[in-house]
Structure formats: structure tokens, C-alpha cells
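Researcher: Go.
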Amino acid sequence: LAIPVEKSVQLYERDSWSNQFNLSDDFFTQILNVVSWSLCGQYLAAGSVDGCIVIWNVVTKKCMDRVKHDRGYTICGLAWHPRGGQIAYTDTEGNLGLLENVCDGQVKKSSDKVQSTTTKDYDGLFDD
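Model: Structure:
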């Protein structure tokens, strides 16, 4: 079980709920808000409210890759490709991004980005 707490991810044993270890990285300057396990269970990705994404090898506890969102938008979703090597991510502005070559040391962002067309019209969002 992996839980984002402040600027680290705390990993717990599910049967005993004991904290096994924490993963952190100086790359994070704001709190973490989302984590996602790779399907093989060897890697863990975490996203922050200032657009940082870090991927760790959980077995070695070493950071594999670090990526910063182009515009610094909050990362709100992470999903691993079933065969690994790619992570799709979403931000709070409605954009979808793709990290390729994850965990091979040469992460690159896909150039096919969905641009946000969201207008921030909050009129009528709440009752008066």
C-alpha cells in the first residue's frame, strides 16, 4: 500500500499496516497528491500539485526518472501502460500527457499533447 504524505510516499505492509519505508526526492517542492503502481509491482510513480512526476524502483528504492509538467499544472491522474514503459497522466486543467521510455533513463514527453480548451467560467457553479 502506497500513500502520498506531504513530500514523500509511505509504503505499508497490508497485513500488519506497519510502515515498511518511505520514498522521497528533493525534486518535489510541493505536496504529493497521486501515486500509481506499475503492473509488475516493481515501479511506483508519484505526482505533485506543482506538476512534478517521479518514478522509483521500489525494490532498490532508487529514483529512476523525474519529469516536470511544461506548465506546472497539478498532476491528478497517473496510469501505467499494461506492458510498462509508458505512463499516461492528466492534469487539473484537463490536459492529457504521455511519458515514454519510462524507467530506461531516457524519459521523453509525447509531442502529441491535448491542449486545454477549458474556460474558467465559475458563474453558476454554486447556488446563491
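Model: Confidence is low (pLDDT under 50) at residues 111-119.
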